[in-house]
Amino acid sequence: MNELRHFATASPVGYRSVRHGTPLRVALTTLIALAPPAAASAAQGAMGDAIDAGEAVIEALTAWDRGQERDEAVLGDRLVDLGPVTVAPLCRLLDSDDAVPRVALIRALTRLGDRGALPSLQPQLANADPAVRAAACRAIGRLAKPSEVLEQLVALVDDADRSVALAAGESLRERSVGDESTLARHLLRALPKAARPDAFAELLGALRDPVAEDGLVALLDDERHQVSALAGLSVRADRANGEAVLDWFERTRDRDVRKRAALCLGRIRHRPAVPSLIEWLDDVDRGLAANCHWALQQIAGRELHADRELWQLWFDHAPEFRELRGEPTAEPLALEAKPAEESPRGRSDALAAASTKRSPDQPAPDSQSNPGPTRVPAFLAAALGLAALSVTAAFVRRRRGR
């Protein structure tokens, strides 16, 4: 009976028999004929659907094995179309050592959605092929309860292959909806011992839970994990963390930390960082200078050249930075003129003025018939201002070159 079950569930034995030219139904019929009468009768009554499913699975895999259909996506669709009866045959094949298209089998089991496949899927997390491990991460993330696989998936965030780490992170986020604080605590405990702490920090940054944010900010005080903490805060991109990041940008002596802090300041668009970023634009470390330039472009929304004098001129004249420069932010109010005594001439002038006012429903007057004061469009004024800054900077550089 064990051999019958193997064949009826499309086990490696059945798969090999077909690969060697023995049809599954013929092999099963032979074994049933050789079995004891009671066992043969039970087998004939119980294995009809299983035989059909096994034959269909093996037919699909044989076509793949012989090169007739090498597209694993098409193979997966074909297996899913066979329905839930294929879950047992697919699990048996995953449990085997045969060279089967494991990624296609795992994806098919994921789409079939049977939790009974979990015992066969979990060992695939240790497969030597990164593609198989990544597919198993996604499958388990869909089928298992968070408490069943949390530790396994957290460990795979530290996988040497980035695709596996990303798949594990995606599965953890999908399964942690509504309880991100538990996941955040597990990640914070695993991060200090991890070979790739940035992966844990970036996953923490993607969580919206305050436990994750507080943990990343606390890691800024740990010199071993400052770069990782900044990577996570960059993903989070919360302006509330700007002051803490700027503080480390200004006082750290570690260039790697300052480079990552510059990127983080650009990601969160922390405007008070502009003067400090400008100071480092002409640093001898071109990587640091490039990061500061990128951050300034993100904050300013302008694509000026990486020239310290040019950016300083822009900062000194940009109206949105008046408060940062210590200038008053509001224009002084003009004193209202005392109204003149009303006279017949004044009343007629007022009536004439009132008659020329346009209501919101009336079309704008023709500029040719009633020309007003000439106004420069805002975008043209901005362009002229940038051109003036560029010319001034070029003049300064030319003076220095003499």
Describe the 3D structure.
With 402 residues, this protein is an all-alpha fold. Among the domains are: 1-112, no CATH class; 126-204, no CATH class; 237-324, Leucine-rich Repeat Variant (Alpha Horseshoe), CATH 1.25.10.10. It is built from 23 helices and no strands. It has helices at residues 2-8, 12-19, 24-34, 37-46, 48-65, 72-81, 87-95, 102-112, 118-121, 130-143, 146-156, 162-175, 180-190, 197-206, 210-219, 226-236, 242-251, 255-268, 274-279, 286-300, 308-317, 344-356, 378-401. The N and C termini lie far apart (97 Å). Mean pLDDT is 75; it is low at 1-35 and 332-374.
The major beta sheet can be summarized as: none
The geometry reads as: elongated
Mean pLDDT: 75
Quantity of strands, as a count = 0
Rg? 35 Å
Stretches where pLDDT falls below 50 for ≥5 residues? Answer: 1-35, 332-374
Distance between the termini: 97 Å
Beta-strand residue fraction:
under 5%
**Fraction of residues in helix:** 55-70%
Q: What is the succession of H and E elements?
A: HHHHHHHHHHHHHHHHHHHHHHH
What structural class results from the helix and strand content? mainly alpha
Report the total helices. 23
